[in-house]
Design goal:
alpha/beta, Rossmann fold, 2 domains, 5-stranded parallel β-sheet, two-stranded antiparallel ribbon, 13 helices, binds thiamine diphosphate
Length: 388
């Protein structure tokens, strides 16, 4: 795989510093895609996935979208503290997760709950995490959306930008040394390519040829920093060249193109070829998180343009051209998903809070004396002051 490093910068703008025309047309020009504007698949590019897989990707993307919307409402109502979602980026996340093999490990950024659900985490467990209740797999010790999924071969979300990249590369190196048939992937935004972890991970991956797929979701923004101000390179993919890592750019709103590109990188890694850097061109339709108001720094017109390139609309149109989805089926899917979400919210809200004792569990096999003392004071209150 080779990256086309010529031509325009990340969002079709000119030289560094020149305002970019931040439209889907400019961003996606000349980039590998499969689903054409009329909804049909380009026969020369079509990976010819089984229809059942394509439909299950649509179901998962709709589910992810509806969960996202519900969580924003819950946060606005003060029922959860925070949410960071994937509105507009569902194809980058679901299709790449689907392209990984079951034994492969995924190291998430923080927008990839859809990948965790794809891997089989029950929706209830995710909502338990969002409410931080006693059933939360992370035991209510983390912010919402800081999930963990060891049974699903899914690393824990780490807040510091970029840490998952070195984790993914280190894990892959260990697998390679042990001769395990295992590939890892790391998700990150284009802003994270400015972190030292990116450079450490890429250098290590390039030198040791680790079986790693580096998934850069170029969604146009790193909170309020536009992608064209993030780097002086014309693409983020071309950063791979400096590390001897093959790189490719792909239409991130085209579910079939993402699957095809990631699957090729997984097979390349599994065959001993080493890492690949994939720049998935997409757009963050929402704010950075529920703590952000993007109206303070970006034009609403820009967002409107990208709404028309919504990956869900594109996949729906594709399924319609195949005669594989009717309006009634789509409405039923949404109604069923809404009911599933509602039941999970009710159960998560009704569940007890984590116990005070649970704060002292899970680190030591045998609690040291000072922890036991702190636990007692925490639960019984401070000891009365000694009288001298
Ligand atoms: C080391 C570190 N620096 C800064 C932050 C604050 N921060 C959280 S998200 C973010 C932007 C990340 O943007 P990008 O990597 O493009 O990912 P996106 O959110 O767009 O998916 C920043 C600066 C952090 N979490 N960690």
């Amino acid at each position: 795989m080779q990256v086309d490093s010529g031509g325009q910068n990340n969002h079709g703008g000119g030289a560094h510093g020149v305002p970019a025309p931040r439209t889907p047309e400019a961003s996606l020009a000349g980039i590998a895609r499969v689903i054409r504007d009329d909804g049909t698949a380009d026969p020369a590019e079509d990976p010819r996935l089984p229809l059942a897989l394509v439909k299950s990707l649509y179901v998962a993307m709709v589910r992810t979208r509806l969960i996202d919307e519900r969580l924003v409402t819950l946060q606005r109502q003060g029922r959860i503290g925070f949410h960071i979602g994937s509105l507009g980026e569902e194809a980058t996340i679901l299709a790449s997760a689907a392209a990984m093999r079951p034994q492969d490990w995924i190291f998430p950024c923080y927008r990839e709950f859809g990948a965790l659900l794809w891997r089989g985490m029950p929706l209830q467990a995710y909502f338990d995490n969002m409410f931080g209740n006693a059933n939360d797999p992370a035991k209510g010790r983390q912010m919402p959306d800081h999930y963990t999924g060891k049974p699903y071969h899914f690393g824990s979300v780490s807040s510091p930008i970029g840490t998952q990249m070195t984790q993914a590369v280190g894990f892959a190196w260990a697998a390679k040394l042990r001769k395990d048939d295992l590939v890892t992937s790391a998700y990150f935004g284009e802003g994270a390519t400015s972190s030292s972890e990116f450079h450490t991970a890429m250098n290590f991956a390039g030198v040791f040829k680790t079986p790693t797929v580096m998934l850069c979701r170029n969604n146009g923004w790193a909170i309020s920093v536009p992608s064209e101000k993030q780097s002086a390179t014309r693409t983020f993919a071309e950063k791979g060249i400096a590390y001897g890592v093959p790189a490719v750019r792909c239409d991130g709103n085209d579910v079939l193109a993402v699957y095809k590109t990631v699957r090729a990188a997984v097979e390349f890694a599994a065959a001993g070829g080493g890492p690949t850097l994939i720049e998935l061109m997409t757009y963050r339709l929402s704010g950075h998180s529920t703590s952000d108001d993007p109206r303070a720094y970006r034009a609403e017109g820009e967002v409107e343009g990208w709404r028309k390139a919504d990956p869900l609309l594109r996949l729906r149109k594709h399924l319609e051209t195949l005669g594989a989805l009717t309006d009634a089926e789509d409405a039923q899917l949404r109604a069923d998903t809404d009911a599933e979400i509602k039941a999970c919210v009710e159960a998560a809200e009704a569940a007890p809070k984590p116990s005070l004792e649970s704060m002292f569990e899970g680190v030591y096999a045998e609690k040291p004396w000072h922890l036991r003392e702190q636990e007692r004071e925490c639960i019984e209150g401070p000891r009365p002051k000694a009288h001298h």
